[in-house]
Write a structure and sequence with these properties.
Blueprint lengths: L2 H26 L2 E12 L6 E7 L2 E6 L6 E6 L5 E6 L6 E7 L2 E6 L4 E6 L5 E6 L7 E3 L4 E4 L4 E5 L6 E6 L1 E2 L2 E2 L3 E7 L2 E6 L4 E5 L6 E6 L16 E7 L4 E6 L4 E9 L3
Parallel strand pairs: 1-19
Antiparallel strand pairs: 1-22, 2-3, 3-4, 4-5, 6-7, 7-8, 8-9, 10-11, 11-12, 12-13, 14-15, 16-17, 17-18, 18-19, 20-21, 21-22
Length: about 260
């Protein structure tokens, strides 16, 4: 091999090593969090939780299942249902969010969403979307919607039309089964369906910048009756409190996060 050839070969090795190092560093940069429980509150064990929001001192909850789907206003400290709207039996309720003075609620396979007046739960309008409906939140300017794939869709809050989308990924590739969503301090938190993991997503790129491991949150003493998966994230912006629960869980938890790989 000529001198020039050896230099080219060495250059390729350097580039390969640099790329490998960057890849490893980028993967290692994904923060992992565990949790501690700050407070525990009662939760309706008949609520198949699909959407959760905290505003004005109350939890707003959307529940699913055909024939049992609802929109609720719930007292945090007691779990009491203060206000309820029942969806027609043909709809399987999904995620909810509150934008301005309106509540937006998705349905699973009907391709129909509902817009309500926040205080009265009066139905203001229906809207269509082409995908399944899973989770929904907003960043103050755009609605953000999931459909169970790795895609997140941005919707205009006035027209409810799609204005953009991102694909969510981590170092292993696309992250699918994105479910209930919450916008927390500039990041999108997403339950990953059928797991104890919450993905922390950069809305600009779709990159998962952190994982929250919620394993063990609901103890075995609360699993004597039928419970389903972790689902439901709400954030109290004013007091910086984070709440989580699950489908048919008897408890709702206020948690604090702690990084485990600093």
């Amino acid at each position: 091999m000529s001198w020039l050839g050896r230099m080219s070969f060495l250059g390729l090795l350097v580039l390969f090593a640099a790329g490998f190092f960057f890849s490893c560093s980028n993967s290692d940069a994904t923060q992992v969090y565990t949790y501690s429980v700050v407070n525990t509150y009662p939760h309706d064990s008949n609520a198949f939780t699909q959407g959760l929001v905290f505003e004005d001192g109350f939890l707003f909850e959307g529940t699913g299942l055909y024939g049992s789907s609802t929109l609720r206003r719930v007292e945090l400290e007691t779990g009491n249902i203060m206000q309820i709207h029942e969806l027609p039996d043909q709809y399987f309720g999904e995620g909810i969010t509150i934008y301005s003075s309106e509540i937006i609620q998705l349905t699973w396979k009907s391709h129909i969403g509902f817009v309500y007046e926040k205080d009265s739960f009066e139905l203001l309008q229906e809207f269509d979307y082409p995908t399944e409906g899973w989770g929904i939140t907003h960043d103050g300017e755009r609605l953000i919607m999931s459909d169970g794939t790795s895609a997140l869709y941005f919707l205009d809050p006035e027209t409810l039309e799609e204005i953009g989308r991102i694909d969510v990924y981590d170092s292993d590739g696309p992250v699918t089964r994105l479910n209930e969503l919450e916008y927390v301090q500039g990041e999108i938190y997403a339950n990953v369906w059928q797991t104890d993991q919450i993905a922390m997503i950069a809305p600009q790129t779709g990159e998962v910048v952190g994982w929250i491991d919620m394993e063990g949150l609901l103890g075995p003493e609360d699993r004597t009756n039928h419970v389903d998966v972790l689902n439901g994230i709400a954030y109290d912006v004013e007091n910086e409190r984070l709440f989580v629960t699950g489908k048919l869980w008897p408890k709702l938890f206020e948690i604090e996060l702690a990084a485990v790989n600093d």
